[in-house]
Design goal:
homohexamer, 246 residues, alpha/beta, 20% strand
Chain lengths: 246, 246, 246, 246, 246, 246
């Protein structure tokens, strides 16, 4: 949990960290849930592990797209700088994610599902499971390349699907060129999982470990709600040096 | 395998039996695949195990809807006469399905997935697994009430989705009143599974046992293709007496 | 969701239904979570499906024990009247549970895990999965007789273990005579699952379907909190007639 | 799909790629299915990822054995040149397999099952799942070292078991010295899986993704069937440079 | 554990109970392991739950075959008298098996695997799991009709395969007429599982619960070993009345 | 199997090898089973793959702790010298474990479960599965960091829990500083699994492959039982050079 930065009020909120291998993975997998977290007053940070160097699109372009998407979801962004298609679930990658967990005091972590046809997705899932070993809520999202996936936990994104699609649309280089990024399929899957969850649109998750907090602290009315707590927060980045993990 | 009834030509074709607990289950679960089978020249029979007596809708109404749906898919129909919400996977139910397999010489059987929140679906799945114990291809389809379902076999229904939705629309009493029958969700799921199958629209199946026939017999051009082999075939019915199964 | 009965205040709360086959199953499986729900202001109802007629202990004795346990957990009690060791997942049992869901407006349902060596536990799990097919949160708890169980959702009961053990102690006839009811094991398992959940004591659950509500309605301070909303509520009972389920 | 090379006739056929880590893995895992594919007129290519440098047997010897086996199965052979016991599922290995898929226009890919006690088998399975992410039919075969394996798809090899054993016998260095290569066990397993598939002899597969093509294009009688299309085709090789995969 | 009946010597031995739905199920599933148990000095009892009334073969004939098979394996036989194709996992069936466990003081129980296409096999598996809830070793064997089966525990029957086949041959009515009973397949499967177990021939099991006894009591040389302890023991029968289970 | 070293008597015994990534993993996972093996007269060797260089605690300190723990369990110790948090399941690691198997003539191997949040645990599990590919008994133990774990095989450690806790207490640097090493949880888990196994305290295992030896060779009374066979055996070490595995 983290303390809200907005001053006198000591409203408690969840701190959420979403981890993805490439610049559009998080939006595809849990963009709707992140919007729902923000709407509930939670703090949300996105950690993009690689720069998506293999394209389509240049790294600078992809980073600008990620920043735009983070802004549209009103989330913080950490840019991980690892190399596309060369992520290993080793101490360096684990350390990068551990630092993000520590820095954000995350008590909810979203990450790829472990069974995926993309080697980076598998590596980031494994590294995050290691890094989040003391975190009480670790949820795996689905990617178009995920292979086995039997979800049991859902987030209702009926009120947030538009925002998810808008965030995804920021990744123009992908939407235009990648077979795996199709907004039409994103909406269809949300409806498919929504029916499973008995809501309209949903994102689906496989919980690795989920401690259900029955008594979330009172969420007091934010002062000056028209000025969202994170609007001014600039998307920041950190280059994490590879270090052994303890 | 079965011999085509259309006369001099000895074209071989598959004989397909689809089994469902209630009047709309087959259309929801594998209506697109059945249309694809018909388009490939296969013989297709639908076995509706109960009359859907618990409604919504009267039995006579539901039967008329089923006949209309079977006609629209150009399939034969067997009406099973068992009691809605009271199906047991016992010798009687197994015998009913065994008779249908024998009568149709089915070499492909479609049926509910075993893990389902509806007791009749579970019972029909279990009884069909028993009845089809010597059949080489047994495929489980998904219902809105299915719980666990990890498909690995798909049928491309991109050319047949319209036909599936048309067949489903014949079940007016359900589309209007049941929370579980929503054409919009049917289309969304077909797109969702299509993306998984790397096609546009797909139905997804869990194979219980699937012998892949690499050398299907030559499918000769049908004589008088504009007069489909089954168009005249009246939907027939059989009341199966409950008997011990051997 | 249900409206709180305490008058002018319109505090929203969850409505929880716990279903168990025999008089002590619920306390063993999720007694701690129920205490946590009550502490969070939720409404909680226990549905005991059979009278535990096969003993040890007489039915009247066991019912008195259940009522004492429900009182100690400050929960409502529904006594189901079905026959011990003769529960079937049929329309009658499903209807009994459906009525309880409807009556309590439950949006959280707890029930046995489906893989269990006791036939009644399997039957009650299957019947509840049918009855709760439209409920957004269905969680399976573990019994001493459960066979396969891979939990992924936990409730922290560190503050409620004493209460769970006290409720269990009300079932004197079982604690004294049944091999399956051992308070020492209950505490050990809570510590075992607590370590898995990264808390001190936990109960573990397998979610059948769990929609995570990120924005629970504000839980206003209860007026006269020293007079808990349910303290006066007498444990009530209803004899549900067996009916076909629709 | 690929066009048949035999000239005027435009018969369509499947293009099959079988991937194995070591010189005898493909024959052991799916040699019978490959023979069945050839009998059905399909094009078949074998990609042997490493040279089997760790023996028993020298690389030159093992390559000659592989060429003889490919000839006996009437298949093309690609020799991958990676190092035995040092395969990683990285961009280099993925690129090697992607190139083979592209070059053969494969629409069916066979590969090791992911759970295997040999590290190279695990690596080749993972790399192939990545490389074949757009392929509609990916089937996992079993090796003597496979650990978990629950097959649901079978190919009837009753007419091809002799050919499989003949191909395997070409790997003299292995049959004589390796505990894992026993023709007697190969035949026993084929009978075991045959009984499961309700045929005489079968090979068993776990489908990762299998789109069932209900309407394979007509397979016209090959001109000069006594001169098999691939008989003259020399086994060719390609040394794939390691490259990043996109 | 049970005390050996042979007098002065107080050698301890295991007491094994094998449960099967029909007259040949036990021999098919674990006949080799039973022979191995007898060779190790254990007491072995076979409980045949139904009379196999549906044939092929008459009940008297099938019972004589079972007695011959039990004699050839040197095991005791309990004939259960329930009705073929009509077994339910209810209190009556559970009570029948509980009595056999109590009477034999069994500490090892073999029974069908739960996932099977035959309804009686499923019912007997479920009832035995209930009846053996306090037994420390419950092992599931495979039948030709078993569907899902991922074994991890094996018994080496290299020295006992002949005996298994001889016991099976006693069931002449089945070997001659049933598609499911083929000695050739039995031997092939034993070799298949033997290779998995790293022995020559093996039977494979899925443990429901297996407490590995590291220190079996000393097995003293039997006095008059040429007169096997059970040779004189007549195959006995008991008709178990259906009773509620406690 | 190995011959007992105690001279004239040719008592046969099992040879057990336990493999762990870090200095306290073996004691946590299977310390009780190892004590039970020693009590049954088996030879037991512990292979600690890394020096636990990342701490808490210095390598020299941790090695002394491991030696004390091995002494307290009366087991041999092999110190593997690989680097903490940098273990890969490659030929070097596999070779290290293969050498230990060969040297100890192990016929039982204990190792981490494959699904674990610690990267070294995953690597050591995978490498051991490779190294023990010809071993008939490979059992996976649970660590506090294990994620998925569905045990089916148990060892009764009711008489050995004290010894397990004493061995664990030797790892003072861990017990004092690591969140993952809590003796209270170790005892609770042993009681939890004991209840599952129908004994008092148990360790739980997932068998990868377990050939049940029904006829263990007679375990003759040891001469001079008061002088345990291994008491004099000094804990030895071997530095294994990394080599390609064949």
């Amino acid at each position: 949990m983290a303390q809200a930065p907005e001053g006198g009020l000591t409203a408690m909120m969840r701190s959420v960290l979403a981890v993805g291998a490439h610049p559009d993975d998080i939006e595809l997998g849990c963009g709707g849930a992140l919007a729902a977290h923000r709407a509930a007053g939670d703090k949300v940070t996105m950690l993009v592990v690689t720069g998506g160097q293999n394209g389509p699109g240049l790294v600078t372009e992809r980073r600008a797209e990620s920043e735009a998407a983070a802004r549209s979801l009103d989330c913080l962004l950490i840019w991980g700088h690892l190399l596309d298609c060369a992520v290993h679930p080793d101490s360096g990658t684990i350390g990068l994610i551990e630092d993000a967990i520590r820095q954000t005091e995350a008590d909810v972590v979203y990450v790829h599902a472990p069974d995926d046809s993309h080697q980076d997705h598998r590596a980031v899932a494994a590294a995050t499971i290691s890094a989040a070993r003391h975190t009480r809520r670790v949820l795996h999202y689905r990617s178009p390349s995920t292979t086995r996936f039997e979800p049991s936990l859902y987030v209702d994104i009926s009120a947030h699907l538009d925002r998810k699609l808008a965030a995804l649309a920021c990744h123009r280089s992908q939407v235009e060129s990648s077979l795996m990024v199709e907004p039409e399929v994103v909406a269809a899957s949300a409806r498919h999982f929504g029916a499973q969850a008995r809501v309209r649109f949903a994102e689906a998750f496989v919980p690795s470990r989920f401690v259900w907090d029955l008594s979330p602290p009172p969420q007091l009315p934010l002062v000056g709600a028209e000025a969202p707590a994170f609007e001014e927060a600039p998307a920041f980045e950190t280059a994490y040096p590879s270090r052994a993990v303890t």
